[in-house]
């Protein structure tokens, strides 16, 4: 079972570089499934049905989200109706959408879970308990967890907590790929952050001048996705049977 | 001008792997200077004069710090007196120690600055202004900034803010090396986080069971540095003239 | 049904002024029950069995807690065994202790709940859901909720959320009594914070010089409960049948 | 020297109740100056020139601000040009506006300073140092500090820090008046929070249903100022010579 997981796609630059490089990635890795984090696909802030459909047309089959899941209200009905989009599982039950989905590939159930860390992020339900409950109630042969979080400690804790229970724990949210991809002791594939997919010369996808100015002036600012080239694509290739995790990092 | 910068050394495992591998690294890269972040060198929490001396004996020539700088009171006089230890420059003036130091190598002044990010960390003085003030008042040929911070956005902002003004901006604090080492547009060497040096199978250096339990139980816990092998060493090699940044990542 | 609720008792000054004034308060208000928040009763940090017993001997019948509940490990068994001490109900199930207790007075069940806000405090379970679940599962004639929280918005939200469902929502934690005691529309008695009981000339109970110095120097400091006179006692008198809430504020 | 200080005016309900009651307050207290915190006067979020002028027409002579100072861009030029509006003094120098103003009354200089706490708020410059610098550089006979902050500890620390150096330290921002108005040891008048001026049955001025729902659902929500009666006016009367601070709390 081979999977490509693409890190947070940011705006049109993210979609463009996916369009350009995904065919080559498919050719090279021959994946059974392509997953992407899409929480920043719509202008950096959330996702719309239109852009979700664009991502599906590009070949992405499952979209995970994160703290930006509620940025666009027009997405809410699609979160409910479209099984291909998952939002963090640890939002309260009443929130639209669901925190996991399953895909049947060659007779095997591949479970994809999205969950949010709590450290420096919103006060949601316990992510550890949320994932545990899904694992206890869903039948799966393979499971991939997108742990959307800020703190390295919390993502590593999730990796070790799930070691041996899921196929892979992949961090997202910081928009910078980490160099610590590995196989944990009981066989779970792990990386603290997959990184982002979008502009390369900005600050986590955004035009840098405004961000720097905000840090110095302490005044609010409106961020804009940088559209200048080059772009970057950050992803991981996972071979769930052979226990291989290979980072993919393209700048062009 | 060639420099080795070693990421946050955590406890005796960190010191042990430095002892084992630094001679090989020196042989391979032939650096003019060896710098290390030592904020976790004493049992994971701060630094003591005794352990600072141990690090100097291992060949480390300059020690930078971070948010753990005040963990051991016995260090305070040494922060004042020993020019080889620098703490974040953006603490108030009354705090012991200083935020930068200079080293003369082959007639050139190499300036080393330590500064702390503010996002998700303490409310210190503005790190951007603090660095700017040092750069405006100190004569230097080369400058390396250890930007000790949590948020990727703030570290990237510091990188771009200083691009062309300093030789390198190196992030520390998250204890996980990032895969984004690069040369910025105006020639500054950059990496979001150098990563940590210490145990490999813990959670940012600490025994994993206690951390996981704390995240789930929400109850306080006392963390202990993991001493089991393997250990990891994370560092970067910098060639400040040739504009080269090479990550070093050893697990053993 | 008449109740005295005493705000966070801080150290020996808090216990002393309770000892001096509680007899007079009892004489004046003739309460059926005396409740106190005891999270700072042991030297400002948590509670011990010995000091809990001291509070019981002073006439306090139920002790509620807050974020300091885990400061003293020796309290954990007593949290489990002694029905007179309640800790925030929204800690995970595995935590020692329980989040509510009931007292039978004149054939009526008085339910006392302790719950913690999440804003600027720990990421616990949802306090609104936690209280709702208790109310749905416990038989009660009267209910008092100690909402231990920082943000006024969250405490007011709890007040309005429970308006008509409980007898009283009393905020604690900020250590400063608010002037907004009132009867909400559906009859629930409410105050955003009852205030603290302990030294008067410190900073929320602590010697002021150290706190000021910490805010300015940004360096860690060890806080000590101020023992100089005068002391203050902050409490509320509640008449649950007559829908009366009367603040008590003694400085001596 | 007698002053009325009105706590955070929220939206049109806040302006309405000021209009209705300020004449009576003036008649009763005969103040030399009327100051109000106006950071929420424009629909709960910031201030506009039009609404600032409305407040001036109502008789308010000086407007202080807080963390909402940047909500309305159209205010920025007025922050620069109009000496009657002050924003927190501890924003970086480059920010529009100024952190203090002086008013000459009967030949005496009354200095009004606005400053923001840092705890749970933005990472600004040190508020203690910022106020100290103003006091060291401005000639004044009386000084009133609006300490806009969340944490009771930080506001109390400011009070004690300035005790004997200024006439009054008045907290704002939590929108709930505290019951701890007092004269500090060296004569400074103090209250932790003056409270808000606007709707009475909302949550710090906002319609309660949306706030409760947000706390429970963890989803973003758009807040609206409650316009139903009754309204509340929270203020303090200060007699700077006689060392008197009297809370004013009107609900109607
Ligand atoms: Fe993202
Ligand atoms: Fe995110
Ligand atoms: Fe560290
Ligand atoms: Fe650190
Ligand atoms: Fe307390
Ligand atoms: Fe507390
Ligand atoms: Fe306000
Ligand atoms: Fe405010």
From TrEMBL, chains A, B, C, D:
Fe cation 1 binds at residues 8, 39-40, 175. Gene3D superfamilies: 3.60.21.10. Transmembrane segments: none annotated. Fe cation 2 binds at residues 39, 67, 148, 173. The active site is at 68 (proton donor). Its cofactor is Fe(3+). Pfam families: YmdB. The keyword Lyase does not apply. Keywords: Hydrolase, Iron, Metal-binding. InterPro entries: Metallo-depent_PP-like, YmdB-like. This is TIGR00282 family metallophosphoesterase. It comes from Alkalicella caledoniensis. The lineage of its organism: Bacteria, Bacillati, Bacillota, Clostridia, Eubacteriales.
């Amino acid at each position: 079972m081979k999977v490509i997981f693409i890190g947070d796609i940011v705006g049109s630059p993210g979609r463009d570089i996916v369009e350009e490089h995904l065919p080559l990635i498919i050719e090279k890795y021959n994946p059974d499934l392509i997953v992407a984090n899409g929480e920043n696909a719509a202008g950096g802030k959330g996702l719309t049905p239109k852009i979700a459909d664009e991502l599906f047309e590009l070949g992405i089959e499952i979209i995970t989200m994160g703290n930006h899941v509620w940025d666009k209200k027009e997405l809410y009905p699609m979160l409910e109706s479209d099984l291909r989009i998952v939002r963090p599982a640890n939002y309260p039950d009443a929130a639209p959408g669901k925190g996991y989905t399953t895909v049947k590939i060659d007779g095997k159930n591949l479970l994809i879970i999205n969950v949010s860390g709590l450290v420096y992020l919103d006060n949601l339900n316990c992510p550890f308990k949320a994932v545990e409950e899904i694992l206890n109630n869903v039948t799966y042969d393979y499971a991939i967890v997108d742990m959307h979080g800020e703190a390295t400690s919390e993502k590593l804790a999730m990796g070790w907590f799930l070691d041996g229970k899921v196929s892979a724990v992949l961090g997202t949210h910081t928009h910078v790929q980490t160099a610590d991809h590995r196989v944990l002791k009981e066989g779970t594939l792990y990386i603290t952050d997959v990184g982002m997919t979008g502009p390369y010369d900005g600050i986590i996808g955004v035009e840098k001048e405004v961000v720097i100015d905000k840090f110095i002036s302490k005044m609010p600012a409106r961020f804009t996705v940088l559209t200048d080239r080059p772009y970057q694509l950050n992803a991981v290739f996972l071979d769930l049977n052979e226990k291989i995790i290979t980072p993919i990092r393209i700048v062009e």
